[in-house]
Design a protein that fits this description.
Four copies of one chain form a homotetramer. The first copy, chain A, is mainly alpha-helical and 234 residues long.
């Protein structure tokens, strides 16, 4: 059973294993997010005036920032999973360096439940009243690292010299994907000076610029590399 | 290695990856359910009159609502897994929108350990004595969202225009599956007015109507679309 | 792409998905076991005379029953995984009932971290001094349910009428596997009367009878069905 | 569907299942590591002088040893995953003993979140001030067991008698892999006498010798088994 086809299948399985291991880490991190949201404690409610729907609603109210954090992080981990999914759709081989890059990327995925829990613990009213910057900074930096690692992986995979994606990926696809992957962490980074030098209230909404910037960028990119310009291009 | 067969296999693997990622989220959520059930605390028992079988049985008694919640949620997550399993058995391709729909669906699966923990924390004697509606509402709404997302996904997948399931699924199968998937969340929704305007004691048993309604519906459906009527139908 | 081979592959993938979902539950349950073992609390040590190696060793000493419980449960979940692995090695098809049987089986796997945590919380010196029967009973019953579900699944799969394993499994293999799978829960059950009517100290060692009984049984079975008897047999 | 190819595929799938189960345990253990790092408690900060960025930074400061532990363990679990990945890349068959060896190996992987939590709980200033040896010993021994199990598995797989890797692995590859796998736990073991007879401060840095020793060793090995010596060798 050591024919070339068999070896080819074996190598493909090794690559699949790398991908499925990554998927498992994604799946666990995305599901663990909810663990940081603690159910309102019955004993505590009993002590503070008794259990009632009003008291429970009140406790749930305090959990709203946690839910928001949960939803945002779920969305972004999901987004990075789809990107990872798309990116490794091109990969046909792997080497030790890709393994390491992928592990570092997964490290920041695994850190997300902590970052989310930390930020959302302090993202209630206090965040704005006391202009708490540390938890927000931690959260934003986690996303930045994720974004930069994603960019580095994309650059490494799409580099034809590394022979990880064969046949070579279409250069335009590479260009667009690189721009997209670098824009996300930069916009996140932008939130930090806003938080430190202006008001954290504005900083919180900076990530919303991501989809808008993306659209504008994509329109610009498409215009520049549209079919009629293409002959001049390559 | 870039033959059409290879590309076909690659695309199929990408789809498998989407499915296995979903399975991992299902598996983690279903196994995390038990984390919300805390072992009776030895130190607490020591303080409250000493450790004895009687005291432990008493503590376990307080955990009964948690076990019921655990069993119900395990059953429903398991059920939705089998539905997901069956549904994606038809899928032969995917697109960005299916990825997003699936992620939103998984979001409500990942929320289940919290909802279950929340509902079962307050589903002991207090539930009926104080007619607590909030935890029950939360739990029911989680199931509703799950059910509606399942319905939307089924509708999206079975729509021949989207070319996600080829050859097109048999229209009768589609019809039955759509009805089944929309009935579940509606019956859950029904529990809410019962809880709010009547007694929560009755509301708790509403979900038991699901299997009964299903059977009646399936009988009606089968009668209408039975072979002898089929010529008139299509 | 709807050739018979394709459909065959698709069906096979559906079966694989069932198996990999089970594997994920096994893997999560086996890894969550350790979560019940809490690291000795630094703050607590500080209050009780200060942090020192002696104090930490003392705290670790209290964790010994937890480690024993962890090791035993790890071993048994691992064992049941290998059995599940072997059993589904014969399966070539599946139906709704196998899905349900497998889910119920997985339910008792998912319950293991709780049972283990519960039993090992009370399996220190108190277990013997106070003859605590409840946590031990819970633990034993969890294993029994696991064992019986395993037996039922095995019986269902190996029954040629259900057409789940084709070609039909060798009758001798079926017989041996059935005996093996039913012996384990029965020996566990045996531990309960010993615990209740004799001393729990003896009951704890009953499971050790499993490997011994297995060997004797296998010798008897092999003698009866040895090649020279075989002609008379079938 | 019971052709030799089908059986071959089936057996291969059984082996894949073993590998994917291992991957799931790796993925869960690596992601659970972060669970031991608790978010700075808001209520606690409120009592100790109020919530402020300074107070949060202070709390985060106390978490630094935890983060270091998290990073180190993440790195090593990742490393052992890549080794496991590489090792099973050679495996073409399996038997009961390999299953057991692999389970014992996974046991020590599953124990990592506890060991890491335990060591990093006491690896702050106290570690050096009070020369706490127990948590460090526990952590080091966990790595040693991991390393030795890895060595035993590698020896078992690479032994041509066991027919687990066919065609037989190149003897030089085997030799190098064996040396590499045995050096890691030995260097970890070395940290223990340093901790007990000298100062734990030095012991903590012993694992850093691993990459250096590896390089020197590899250079020696390559010299001895270089092409020009090869004829004399075999």
């Amino acid at each position: 059973m050591s024919t070339p086809l068999h070896n080819e299948l074996r190598k493909e399985f090794q690559l699949e294993r790398l991908i499925l291991f990554s998927d498992a880490v994604f799946a666990i991190a995305i599901t663990l997010l909810v663990i940081e949201i603690k159910v309102p404690d019955k004993e505590l409610l009993k002590h503070n005036g008794g259990i009632s729907d009003a008291a429970i609603v009140d406790s749930l109210g305090h959990l709203i920032p946690k839910f928001i954090g949960f939803i945002i992080s779920f969305m972004f981990i999901g987004l990075y999973w789809t990107i990872h999914h798309r990116m490794f759709g091109f990969v046909t081989s792997y080497n030790r360096k890709l393994l390491v890059l992928n592990l570092v990327f997964l490290f920041f995925i695994a850190l997300m439940p902590f970052s989310t829990g930390f930020y959302s613990e302090y993202s209630g009213r206090e965040l704005f009243e006391k202009q708490l910057k540390i938890p927000f900074t931690f959260y934003v930096l986690n996303f930045c690292c994720l974004g930069f690692m994603n960019y580095f992986m994309w650059r490494y995979i799409s580099n034809p010299k590394n022979k990880l994606a064969e046949p070579a990926i279409d250069p335009l696809t590479v260009k667009i994907a690189r721009i997209r992957s670098i824009v996300v962490p930069f916009i996140f980074l932008l939130a930090l000076p806003v938080a430190y030098f202006s008001n954290i209230l504005y900083a919180v909404f900076i990530p919303m610029l991501i989809p808008i910037t993306m659209r504008i960028l994509m329109r610009v990119v498409k215009k520049r590399y549209s079919p009629k310009n293409k002959p001049f291009q390559s």
